[in-house]
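Structure ticket #2291
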Amino acid sequence: MTDLDKLQGTWNVTSLEMGGSEMPAGGACIVVEGGRFQSLGMGAVYEGTVSLNTRKKPKQIELLFTAGPENGNRALGIYELDGDDWKLCLTVTGSTRPTQFATAPGSGHALETLRRGSAPQNEPAAELKGEPAPELEGEWQMLACVADGQSVPDWMLKTGRRVVRNQESSTYFGDHRVMQARYAVNKSHVPHTIDYVLSNGKMQQGIWKFEGENLHICFALPGKPRPQDFSASKGSGNTYTAWKQLH
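Resolution: structure written out below.
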């Protein structure tokens, strides 16, 4: 049996590290069928082909994206496969294949550990109800990001941006889109509320406010209660971000 045979099925992401910082996995998974893969639960659906080189040490993997935000791009990586455990280190914003299972600030690499799981269940898209919020439209530069107690390093902050048009929001690190969702807001609450519906139909609940010209947002994980304040302490699962609009 080849490694590609062993990879068939659904793999749940149990930990995620980017650029030397831990990030919440947020229920993400990778589904491998034949020579194709889907990456789900990261805000957008990423699809493409997977190829392996088992003669190299460590073994090498290459993902060619054929649909979704990364269409036409490649991710170069290394992997280890041990029964129901799979470890991956891949290029995200970088272009040089990793040589070890670790990331560092400025590397542009992501380290994922995955465990075999059950197939994801298709969910009907949650219904959005809200009011217009033209002040959220446009392009924004990331000023801060704390995910479950982990602060995104400065080198990543410089590449972070948010593009909001026609009540759809996308978040990028460099050219890599890490989140895409439809949204709706309610301004009658203090702080104002915002709901995202991700591409997999799941909803995230959040709050938002302006301080001067800067936008502050805090979101819970999909299916979790709305945050009560703009904090993202370890164990909360919340993600807090701050943004400055680009003119």
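Closing remark: The chain has two domains: 3-117, 134-245.
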